[in-house]
Amino acid sequence: MSSSCLLKPSILEHRLQQLSTFCKPKVSLEQYTTPPHLASQLLTEIQRNYGDIEDCSVADLGCGSGVLTAGAALLGAAYCVGFEIDEEALKIYVENMENLGLTYCEGILCDIIQTKSWDRLASSFIILKQYLAIDVNKDNRPRF
């Protein structure tokens, strides 16, 4: 699927390299920063092959500093929300979104594992992970 505003992966990667990241990742929370190169390639492929970013609402579970959220927003997502358990990481996320002028990106401090109201959202996240493993036929993917 072609996108009218699809950035080249190299341009998206350059924009994502401007983001602040963790100074001291917390091992207990399995914190790590998604490298801008990987994020730009992954998000560009999802948009190009499935059209699942531009004009869509995107949730980033365990958003950390917001690399994936920012990338989705820069590729034309209509609305983005990042969920994060760590207050320090969420502060970095919010600063990154503000610095890029991404006013339609929100950050929510919560534990998605313990919050029962996010069960449906977590199911959608599992589908996103399938993009990494197999080529999913868009017509056969479950819609939640």
UniProtKB/TrEMBL annotation:
Pfam families: PrmA. This is Methyltransferase domain-containing protein. One of its GO terms (molecular function) is rRNA (adenine-N6-)-methyltransferase activity. InterPro entries: rRNA_MeTrfase/Polyamine_Synth, SAM-dependent_MTases_sf.
